[in-house]
Each structure stands twice: as C-alpha cells, then as structure tokens.
Design brief:
The chain is mostly helical. Among the domains are: 196-340, no CATH class; 345-469. Helices cover 84% and strands 0% of the residues. The N and C termini lie far apart (103 Å).
Length: 486
C-alpha cells in the first residue's frame, strides 16, 4: 500500500513538472522566443502556406501576424507578372537602381497598359515595406494591409487598380511639371534652397536697399516741389526783365540739373531694391537668379553713366539730351521690372500648383487605403476629381503665362506682359476654387477616415518615390556632363 502511494506521488510530481515546462515553453513562445529560433525551426520549408501551417503547430501561442512575417521572409513569396512586364522591370531597374521594384512594376504596367496587374504591384509594394520594417509593430501593420488586399472582392480590386493607375499617371504629370517649372517637391515646393544665414543676410540687404529707396524718393519729392516752383516763377517772368526774373532764369538750369540727379538716384535705388528681392527669391533657380542679377548690374552701370553725364552737363541742350536718354532707358527698365515681378509671382503660383499636384497623389493614396478597409470612397473620389479639374485649369493658365512672360522678356513687350497677367489671374482664380474643394475634402476625411489621414507613412512613401526619381535624374545629368567633357 505504501509503495502504491509513493508511486502515485512520484507520478503526480512528474505530471506537475511536465505541465510547468509546457507553460514555461508557451510563455517563452509568447514573448521570448527569438525570430532566429523560429527561422531555424522552419528553415527547411519552401512553401509559404506550408510554412504557416507548420509554424502554428510548433508555436501555437505565437502571434499569427508575426509568424506570417517570418514565413514571408523565409519563403520569399513573389508576386508574378507577365513576361513583357518582367522584362520592362528588369530594364528599368538597371537604369534606375534606386527605384523600388514595386514602383518599377507600376511604371511598366502603365507603359504596357495591363492595368489588371496593378494589384500584384500593390501587394509587392506592401511586401517590400514589411522587409524594410525594423519593429514588430511596423511589420504587423503592413501584414494586416496585405491580408486585407487578399480578402478584397473583385470589384474592390478593380477600383483599387484604377486608383493606383490614376496615381501613377499623376506622379508622371508631377515630374513633367517639375522639369518645366524647375520647382521641386523635395525643395519644399521651391526652385532652390537658400541657407538660413545667407537668406537672412540677403533679406537684410533688401531691407536696407528699400529704406534707401524711400529716402531717395522723399528727396525726389522735395526736389520736384522746388523744380515746379521755379518753373512757375519762370513762366511768370516770361516778358519781365527785372533783376529778380533774371536770377530765376539763371537758377532754373541748376534746379533742373539737381532734380534730374534726384530722379536718377530714385531709379538707381529702385534697381538696388529689385536686386535684393532677386537674391531672396526661392522660386527662381540659381542660374535664373544669376542671369537676372547680371541684367540689373548692367542697368545700374548704365544709370551711373547717365548720372555722370547729368553732372557734366553745362547747358540746357546737353541736359535735355541726357534727360531723353534717361527717360528712354527708364521706360525699358520699368517694363523689364514689371516682367520680372510678374515672373516671380507666377513662379510662386507654380509652386502652389506643384504642391497641389503632390496633394492629388496623396489623396489617391488615401483612397487606396480606404478601399483596402472597405470604406465608401464615393464622396472623396468625386471631390478629388473636382479638385483635379481646378488644378489642371490652373496649370494650363500658369504654363500659358510662362510662355507669354518669355515673349515679354525677350522683346520687352508690354502687350505680352498684359496677356501673361491675364493668364496668371485665371490661374489664381482656379487655385482659389481648388482650395475651397480641398477644405471640403479634408473635412469629409476627418469624418470618414481620420486615422488614414493622419498616417505619416503616406507622405514618406510619396517622397521616397520622388527621391528615387530625382536621384536617378541627377545621376543621368552627371553622366551626360562627364561624356561632354571627354
């Protein structure tokens, strides 16, 4: 009897000990089992579905999403494309090694007009994101998105494919507009980035030049009042030969000369002010700034020469001749200044259009995420189309203004300048309407898809796509330059 009792106690001890080991093992699987251990246990598996089945049996307490991430990497489950698309992807990646394979796939699908493949490219993009993730939270997030795609209905997949096709087309349009306007998304929607210290110094110079212009303008007003008063006295002394009238006739030349010098100084300080404005302009490229500054310097030099001629004039005929030269010169400078100011404003409009084009791409990304989750996209899609129409109208008017400003600058044409201003006004109106629509879009998104709207990865993905394109463009330009030097 004692032996039976002892045996029962021993068996109970073994059972408890074994159960404790299982619990510990399960707890280890919950939080402490490393991915290396799991990969080691699954390394012989080559099929994704088999890998998941085996993983669930070996690690029943492990989170399913984590197991799927590991099996994804181990089996390297690939998205399959047709031969034409595959060949296109290979060629494109040779030319643009910085481009993600998923983005290369989308470009090729667009080029080969096989839009049905967009879902595969979309899935590939999510797989690439999973591979790049550094945290478990990140991997789980993209794995869930991948699972949602797998569970979409055929109609939802078709809608998603159309959204992706539109987005790629809009990205293409954005790159074209960037090249034409020379305004870059990655330069904060400007043509160039000026170092903060350099910008502050340039702004300081501009403010100083503006203050000197105001001072010169005040002196000009005083000089003008004196000149007008002398002219009235001269007119009153028309037939008068008194000593006082003789003195007025003698003084009128010196007064006219001083007044003409004050006019010239106002013109010079006006150009110095323009020079300061050009230096701080971030919507012009470095080459455009350099060209504009050279023209201003040339005009300043010519005005200084005219000023010297005024000082050297000894009679009213010489003064009249130099006055005519000054007025002709200023007429051209004034039109050129208006053209330059118009170009500057139009380039700012171009920057807004580039930013709006970027927002269009972002909205298409948001629509994709909404389709993934099975959310109703009808309202947002309709508003996005409306926004697109306004931006396209603004772009067309902006580009027409660019062409007219080019003609105006080359021919110093007032007529072309006025036409450019009309197109610029139309572009502004379209942007105002677009802004109203955009506010409506974001109001609706805040109600329907606030979480998606706040997702920072959307901007990161777009910027990565643009960055890969721009890196490649820079590489190609460098190679062309090196070939030219050889």
């Amino acid at each position: 009897m004692m032996k039976i009792k002892a045996l029962a106690i021993f068996i109970s001890f073994i059972v408890v000990f074994t159960f404790a080991k299982i619990v510990v093992a399960q707890e280890t699987e919950k939080g402490e089992t490393s991915e290396q251990d799991i990969e080691k246990a699954l390394k012989e598996t080559t099929d994704f579905e088999q890998c998941i089945t085996k993983a669930k049996k070996l690690f029943p307490r492990m989170h399913e999403v984590r197991l799927k991430n590991i099996c994804q990497r181990l089996t390297k489950k690939k998205v399959v494309f047709g031969q034409a698309v595959r060949e296109c992807i290979q060629d494109l990646l040779k030319k643009k090694p910085n481009l993600l394979r998923s983005e290369a796939a989308k470009k090729c699908i667009l080029e080969k007009k096989v839009s049905g493949n967009f879902i595969n490219a979309y899935k590939l993009g999510l797989q690439e994101r999973i591979e790049k993730c550094e945290s478990e939270e990140c991997r789980e997030k993209f794995q869930k998105r991948l699972e949602r795609i797998e569970n979409l209905t055929q109609k939802a997949r078709e809608r998603l494919a159309k959204i992706e096709e539109r987005r790629l087309q809009k990205l293409k349009e954005l790159k074209k507009l960037e090249l034409k306007s020379k305004i870059k998304v990655l330069k904060n929607f400007r043509a160039r980035e000026i170092a903060k210290s350099r910008l502050e110094m340039a702004r300081k110079r501009y403010i100083e030049a503006r203050n000197r212009f105001f001072e010169a303008n005040e002196k000009f007003k005083m000089s003008r009042a004196e000149f007008i008063a002398k002219l009235k006295l001269k007119k009153a002394c028309k037939d008068n030969q008194s000593e006082e009238c003789k003195k007025v006739r003698e003084e009128i030349f010196d007064v006219s000369k001083r007044h003409l010098l004050k006019i010239t100084e106002v013109f010079i300080h006006h150009l110095a002010k323009i020079k300061g404005h050009i230096e701080t302009n971030e919507y012009l490229t470095d080459d455009e700034v350099q060209e504009a500054l050279e023209k201003v310097e040339k005009n300043l030099q010519e005005l200084e020469e005219i000023k010297q001629k005024i000082e050297n004039a000894t009679n009213k005929e010489e003064l009249r001749e130099v006055l005519l030269e000054l007025m002709n010169k200023w007429k051209r400078i004034k039109i050129a200044s208006e053209i330059r100011a118009g170009i500057s404003v139009n380039q700012r409009i171009g920057g807004i259009i580039i930013k709006s084009k970027y927002l269009e791409i972002k909205l298409e990304k948001i629509l994709s995420r909404m389709e993934e989750r099975g959310l109703d996209t009808t309202t947002i899609s309709s508003l996005t189309d409306k926004f697109h129409i306004h931006i396209e109208n603004a772009r067309e008017n902006y580009e027409k203004a660019v062409d007219k400003f080019k003609i105006a600058r080359e021919n110093v044409s007032k007529e072309a300048l006025e036409e450019a201003k009309e197109f610029m006004t139309k572009a502004r109106e379209e942007l105002k309407n677009a802004d109203k629509t955009l506010k409506e879009i974001f109001h609706t998104l805040n109600v329907q898809a606030k979480e998606i709207l706040q997702d920072k990865t959307i901007d990161e993905e777009i910027e990565e796509e643009i960055s890969a394109e721009e890196t490649e463009e820079t590489t190609e330009e460098t190679e062309v330059g090196e070939e030219g030097e050889q």
